[in-house]
């Protein structure tokens, strides 16, 4: 036993007392209730030690030794209490186990909860991280948003408006990275900056910036395009020194198995160029208008590049793994006079050579003996004509490639022979300039002599393709 019961009155809001007059050898006393470990027991005014009684069920107090008739047993039970606002300079210290009941919102809900793991929940009583903010964002309520306010009313461009720092205590404590917002200038918005550090003792270096216009700079503090990457090495590069510029890498984790057969839709990565405008003729709607793809060729990761354009993204050029370049849409044709021979051609008359057969016509630009340029550019034309029954008495034979801009003389021959040759071949090639919708065809002319010369069937060709 230790201590004596006090005689001063106590606030009934914090204590309740039960008093009993014991009978002979009485050990159990039924109280009005208590919280285990939050009570004191007095026998005849003397405070009993914890070993002298048992009080565990919230109701009964059981003495270790029976009381004597007439003994007075008093049980003082302590209850929880609330405090009003507490002010003062002294520290407020809590000893023993302490559970935060949360901070309410002056209504009926808990606004902030700090759990035993020191996780802070705002709007939630079960925070899963050091700080968790919960709220219903229906209809744009922004109920779980965080706002960082800069109260500076005279800020100039480049001033920090707010930020988050990531601090490391590993080996050499310091700031490992940060995110901050810089003021963009008078009347302007903000620029979002991501800073990194090679080690926590180094200096933070800007890695990525998103400016007020939405331009993204990677290693570039003044981006002038939607993505603007800059290497950090500056100054003159000496002879023989190696320097590498900015690189964008698109990586694929797939592993193709042996026997894999590629399809046109298999690719490692791509750049797509899209538009929301669907007003153009022949377009299927808003979407991708052009693309560059790294296309898989086989199971051994041999990859080529394909270039696609148009509303349906049709392949226009391919560079395969060997470096070979194909352009399936590049204007190109080859025609032959295999449908009928042109015989006994009239003299002193320009004849259009009939190329009735197409060996190929990539782009469908050749028809009725005539090539029509689909685009403005430089075109290479090649011509070969075989004549039959040449007249040695003719003054000359002449062949032209006739275009909308000018005529190109393919051949001019004076047949100074002692007798009429049976065959003669005329051939030539030209690099010509053509505008879109310009035409090109071949003409033949015989000056003087007799009407006897033929264009031998299936022995003359006219070909061409877009060079640049």
Walk me through this protein's architecture.
The chain has 468 residues and is mainly β. It has five domains: 15-78, no CATH class; 103-140, no CATH class; 160-229; 267-326, no CATH class; 332-466, Jelly Rolls, CATH 2.60.120. 0% of the residues lie in helices and 41% in strands. It has strands spanning 15-21, 28-30, 39-43, 46-47, 53-54, 60-63, 72-78, 103-104, 110-114, 120-122, 131-133, 160-168, 174-183, 190-196, 205-210, 216-218, 227-229, 267-275, 287-296, 303-309, 314-319, 325-326, 332-336, 350-352, 357-362, 366-367, 370-372, 377-388, 396-403, 407-413, 423-434, 439-447, 454-455, 461-466. The strands form seven sheets. It has a six-stranded mixed sheet with strand order 12-13-14-15-16-17, with no helix packed on it. A hairpin with a 3-residue loop joins strand 29 and strand 30.
Q: Kindly report the average pLDDT value.
A: 87
Task: Give a quick account of the main beta sheet: strands, pairing sense, barrel closure.
Answer: 6 strands, mixed
Radius of gyration: 48 Å
Number of helices: 0
Number of strands: 34
Q: How are the strands of the largest sheet arranged?
A: 12-13-14-15-16-17
- What structural class is derived from the secondary structure elements? mainly beta
What general form does the structure show?
rod-shaped
Name of the CATH first level of the largest domain = Mainly Beta
- Quaternary: single chain
- Examine the coordinates and then state which fold CATH places here, giving the name of the CATH topology of the largest domain: Jelly Rolls
